[in-house]
Amino acid sequence: MDEEYDVIVLGTGLTECVLSGVLSVEGKKVLHVDRNEYYGGDCASLNLTQLFRKFRGTETHPESLGRDRDYNVDLIPKFMMANEELVKVLIYTDVTRYIEFKLISGSMVCRKDVINKVPATVTEALASPLLGFFEKRRAKKFLEFVSGYKDDDPSTHENLDLDKHTMVEVYDHFGLDQNSQEFIGHAMALHLNDSYKQEPARETINRILLYVSSVARYGSSPYIYPLYGLSELPQGFASAIHGGTYMLNTPVDEIVRDENGKFVGVKSGDSIVKAKLVIGDPSYFKDSVKATGKVVRSICLLQHPIPNSDDTDSTQIIIPQNQANRKHDIYIACVSSAHNVCPKGFWVASISTIVETDNPSQEIEAAIQLLGPITERFDYVSETFVPLNDGDNSQIFISKSYDSTSHFVSVHEDIKDIYRRISGTELVIKKRATIEEEQAAFEAAQ
């Protein structure tokens, strides 16, 4: 433990593991530490005994639930877009060699207590019950505009400047009503609330393109998910390390700083491990973060698919804020034995949203009502944190807490932001050379 490193990473949440993997691939000497005996941090996947111990204070659970080892229940479930940058990071760091992914069957949105598939193509828009007769024609024209837009071809622009015109101006240009705006903005572009409408349209258009291209890649849904739960991702990084060192079950007693507050090292027991900088989740830096709110989550074990979800083995359902009479959307992520997270005949449905009142459990009632009979239910509320500073002076780079969404859009934004602050450059994922290409380059240099 007297060795000195380029980077120390604290916590094995996905944000920390991605940064650890990328920096290791770039040749940095990385030490990755977690106080827990398992991978994943706040987004760990628990077996049945761990689940009951955490939420009920007992390891005893009904035999009717099946075998302990058949469960891998995510504390914070999230799905990936098939074409998103985070998937490219997993490929870049070789993590995909150790993990198998499966398509999430459905992507749905709730309106007036009824759930429907989110239309992602012109054909689906024309057939969707979410849209009225005349609205279908307008949505068709909008989706054709999105898929055909080219920066260097003004004939595809419809006299719109995506960097100047706001999204509400784009909606108005195509005559889209509130119903269309709701599923486009929340279920396709995955915005957390309606504030995006007043921002330049480019980000939203890019998000819609990502959604549509991800659907086109595999079929019915844009989302993929790792077999055996999200904890497989940090374990995959540990398997694919490129000179990095992982240490679980290692207490962190102190973040050592010099007289100017700059990071020196991490103290564990009697040892101090030094490094040039440290990356970690908020739980390791309680004096350097501020609370931003709370998220309520409910993990529900079901013995049936979610009613009216086409009897699929998995789905994401978004209840837009206006449908729930709230300021924030409600998310439902449902997976099943098809994803090796529970026994056959069971489904795991997880609900989440940002807390707005003094009665968090009541705030998710609209989602609970969609699930049908619930076999077991585990509710909890957690605070969310952000760093107090950018880490430039202290060389302490702290990630944000995971939000209430059931996707990784905001997580990847945080990863890119931390990388930018550390390196001063954008995170650009390049195609890595194969072993054969590296060998040929080595021989050519001799």
UniProtKB/TrEMBL annotation:
InterPro entries: FAD/NAD-bd_sf, GDP_dissociation_inhibitor, RabGDI. GO terms for molecular function: Rab GDP-dissociation inhibitor activity. One of its GO terms (cellular component) is cytoplasm. GO terms for biological process: protein transport; small GTPase-mediated signal transduction; vesicle-mediated transport. It holds the Pfam family GDI. Belongs to the Rab GDI family. This is Rab GDP dissociation inhibitor.
